[in-house]
Amino acid sequence: MKKYLIAGAVALAFGGVAHAADSAPRAENAYLSQADAAARSARVSNVDYTLEFALTGKETFSGTTTLSFDLNDASQALTIDLDNATISRLTVNGKTIAPQYNQWFITLAAADLKAGRNTVTIAYSRPHSTNGEGLHRMVDPVDGRVYTYSHFEPAAAHQMFPVFDQPDLKGTYQVTVTTPADWVVSSTMRESGVQDVDGGKQWTFPRSKKLSPYNFSMHAGPYKVWEDNSGKYPMRLFARQSVATQVSPQDWFKYTKQGLTFFDQYFGIPYQFEKYDQLLVPDFLYGAMENAAAITFAEGRFLHKEEMTVAQKQSLAGVIMHEMAHQWFGDLVTMKWWNGLWLNESFASFMGTLATAEATEFSNAWQSFYSGGKQAAYTQDQRVTTHAIETPVPSTANAFDNIDAITYSKGASTLKQLRHLLGEEVFRKGVHNYLVKYQYQNATLDDFIGSLGEAANRDLSGWTKEWLYQAGVNTIAADYKCSAGKISAFTLRQSAPGKELPTLREQRVQVGLFQLGAQGLALSKNVAITYQGATTVVPELKGAACPDLVYPNYQDWGFVQVQLDKKSFATAQSSLSKVDDPLLRSMLWQSLWDGVRSAKLPLNAFLNTALANAPAEKDYTLLGDIVDKLQASVGYLNLMGPSAYNTKVIAQLEQMSFDAAKAATDTNFQRRWFSTYISVASSPAALNQLAAILDGKLLVPGLNVGQDVRWNIIRRLNRYAYPGSDALLAAEQERDKSDSGQQAAIAATVVRPDAKVKAEWAATIADLKTTLPFSKVRTAMGSMFPPEQRALNEQTAAQRLATLGEVDKAAGPVYMRAYAASQIPATCTPASVARLDAAIAKLPGLSTGTQRALLIAKQEDERCVAIKQAMMK
Question: Domain 333-468 carries which CATH code?
Fold first, then answer.
């Protein structure tokens, strides 16, 4: 991996562009600045690509690209992006040219260009990628078959072919691919011909519609293919041959067909890309990618060696819907530059959840969104690294700096809130008009908001400024008085985080009043209200029965932290089991957890509440949220170090989860509880039980100890150096030689509390030229230092911080996103906090992403120390 230099920052305001001077050459580095991209798109238009690829399955591939484009200004040089290739031939307008090429882009001299139509042909060869970008190659360890797939977001198409690699230079793509005889190929279009050639096959695809480069794709290999033509559009599903038995095509096709029907109707524009392919691919960097008509999904997230649980099916449905929403919003209409990536992702997250709730069996999708993505957004928005939803992106080096829970889930929450504010049908009409007006083009945030405002007959500039250009989450609290059992005055009070983030926002919410009675905690009254500013009087609630609990964001319309009044908080803590509404119950659990995270509610008080209430939880989605909080609690306890209390409460959690797994009559609940048991097991008794379950000496009625469960147990046993766990690991490696088995074996090896093992894997992680696929390096990173291994973490902590700047300069964004998230030491002591503070002062030149990771590590370390201190009071 070559050393990348970060392009210089460009001064931007509200997505505007600082244009480079005409004479300024493009910076000699791996990235494209927004200024250079804008200058290029001002000159270039009507782009067509003719792409020829020769794939053999070996470590390199070759291709010939012909670019045809209109140029309105031929007085200056023009660059074409191409990464790490060997160019064998370059012709410009029929003339053979010696390439001027720096391994990042080709520069075409002005003398070789002309105003009007230009044609450039580039023949080249290039190594396949192994880090998940470009044209990735993977050798299946089970059968030796080779698989390839492309991934181009953000700005990685030039790692596969010569291209103007920026979203606002859309083009058409005509593709020809030669492959081994047993391979199949999927691209944006359905193939128009397949011929036998020289012991292989040649696949020909017709010219596509206009797409941004990052939305085009081409995937090839000996994939297993399933087809379903029962819907309006032909559907196919692809997966590696060795994992085909783990695929449930009927579920994929069911959710896909439901989604296509829903979106056709909602958007009022039929799906534009003729067929719908979906591919499960290995070593994938993210969850999925919305390539037009050829969507890729991460095997590690969507392949299961047992029948899918309800949660796994809902996750699959939700991601299918998210990527499908992109086919309209992102592929059909595309942002002009990467600062608009948040809107693509926010909209897809919002629409994906809406479609899941309204078109599938998972009608509680918004509850899952609340407890998952939305809570991550609240956490992110309260960090020192919080940022506005809409932020400048000076160059492609920064394209993913702000891709986080604010981008996805806060953005989706603001769109949900805006839909409530404007009305459902007005919102839908605005989206429809936007898609109609800008289809096959690029658009800006102002274009989108303008379309919504026009549909609502309202100026949304103030809303946009408050919500999209200002960071931070507000807090809302109910301030009320009662007299003679009735509310005599009721006011909503809104507050901002502080002087640095002072914005108060307009928002529409529901205020719910609840009474405790024989039937539990029941809703007595709710009103919808639009509030703004510091105080909003709610006269509609005057005279209502004095409540036992007030929840001022009932049914979760708003993006706002709820501060329960003292009486409501006490009711929440004591009466969780008396709340019938699962979403309200989720919100009350979250209020308690917020109290822990802010060090206002002692962690032990939360755990006592959980031990008393969790076993009785009957809502499967909420149970998942509760056990996630329990696992986070155990993480805090382990970071704090051993104590009599920690030993006692973890033993109680072990017993609770194991008893619940044995008692469960529903398979989904049993698997969730048993997974929780594995995740908290650390006592000798619990580890003995896990070992006995693994070898069949102990049976849990109804529980299937399949391959995934076996690996989870083996990893846990190795994490605590259980006697003989290394031998169990070796035996399981022989039993399961699949790619997922190799990943699990790495995780189980690296997690062992063994300094020698840590050192060996640290060396592999540090070797930027390792031949180990990055997916496996990333697995090792994430397994290196579990919370209880504080002493091992401390042994190399100072060294890792001292070399962080060097690694950051050498490695590049893809690597650093994983490295910075896992290798910065934070061990829940004042000394650890001080060490991180010193590192922040010593390392001012870090890339944006790594700098943020360092700041987050310090803030979370401070939080852990505060939680520990709150427990001791």
Answer: 1.10.390.10
